[in-house]
Design a protein that fits this description.
- By secondary structure, the chain is α+β, with helices and mostly antiparallel strands.
- It has one domain (9-94): Double Stranded RNA Binding Domain, CATH 3.30.160.
- The chain is built from 3 helices and 5 strands.
- It has a 5-stranded antiparallel sheet with strand order 1-2-3-4-5, covered by helices on one side.
- The termini are far apart.
- The mean pLDDT is 93.
């Protein structure tokens, strides 16, 4: 059984909010089958994926070359919370995420 399922990116962008996406990634959105990736800066990105139970998983990822590190993750995020959680994940200067 898969952890994630196919996601409509337009619905997800609407749930996060266009102004939040502008604040997080300057409006850049990379569409994937199970969600979206928002490139932040300094090698950080935020991924949002639709889980099998209709909640979202928001992950802060750091990328250098071919190496990636998960720097925090929140699971079970509901649609009305996904914008705030994605914004918090993008604030990598403020400390830890996912606790």
């Amino acid at each position: 059984m898969s952890t994630y399922r196919e996601c409509d990116p337009n619905t997800l962008v609407a749930q996060i909010g266009r102004m939040n996406i502008l604040a997080i990634s300057g409006g850049r959105v990379q569409v994937r089958l199970t969600g979206i990736t928002l490139p932040v800066s300094n090698g950080y990105r935020v991924t949002v994926d639709l889980a099998a139970d209709d909640t979202y998983t928001v992950t802060r990822i750091f990328v250098r070359g071919r190496n990636t590190w998960v720097k925090g993750q929140m699971t079970g995020v509901y649609c009305d919370e996904v914008g705030e959680v994605a914004y918090q994940a993008s604030c990598f200067h403020n400390g830890e995420f996912g606790r």
